[in-house]
Design brief:
Immunoglobulin-like, mainly beta, 1 helix, single chain
């Protein structure tokens, strides 16, 4: 019986290997804007999918906010930009990337449980449909800083399979 369990576990690992080999998610320059506790905040980054399989960011989790949602900005009929929650997640196409940026898609932090101070960082767990969970560190920047963090993020750190190098 013990041999059968071991054989089944080995078979499951071999079957999962081709799919895992096709996963190559990179998380580039994750940052948030400084904000006081009790307010809302947002996380921005670029998600790069160098793999051969489409993936989807379906959720984000952190203890710095009461709620965390995936949001986008859309133009209303009157031309005013409005924020809306993204249902079903954000697609990251195979061989492509998706930028979460100011004025576009982003991770919304509702009800900050602590102040986001310039220079501080905090953990965020991103949940992908195919790849699973990845925990990263998000750096807090000055609200007046340029959008990109240039070298302060996860650039060059590929998250292959579930043995990610991004701090999980």
């Amino acid at each position: 019986m013990k041999f059968l369990k071991l054989a089944l576990a080995a078979l499951a690992a071999v079957v999962a290997m081709p799919a895992m080999a096709q996963m190559n998610i990179g998380l580039i320059e994750p940052f948030a804007i400084a904000n006081p506790a009790g307010r809302t905040g947002a996380i921005f980054l670029t998600i790069d999918n160098g793999g051969a399989v489409d993936d989807r960011l379906v959720e984000a989790q952190t203890d710095v906010a009461e709620r965390v949602e995936l949001h986008t900005m859309i133009a209303a009929a009157d031309g005013v930009m409005k924020m809306r929650q993204i249902e079903g997640g954000i697609e990251i196409p195979a061989g492509g990337s998706h930028e979460l940026k100011r004025g576009g898609d982003h991770i919304m932090l509702l009800g900050l449980t602590r102040e986001l101070e310039v220079g501080a960082s905090f953990p965020v767990t991103l949940v992908f449909e195919q790849m699973g969970m990845v925990t990263i560190q998000v750096t807090v920047i000055d609200p007046n800083a340029d959008q990109g963090m240039q070298g302060h993020g996860m650039q060059g750190h590929d998250m292959q399979g579930h043995g990610m190098s991004g701090g999980n």
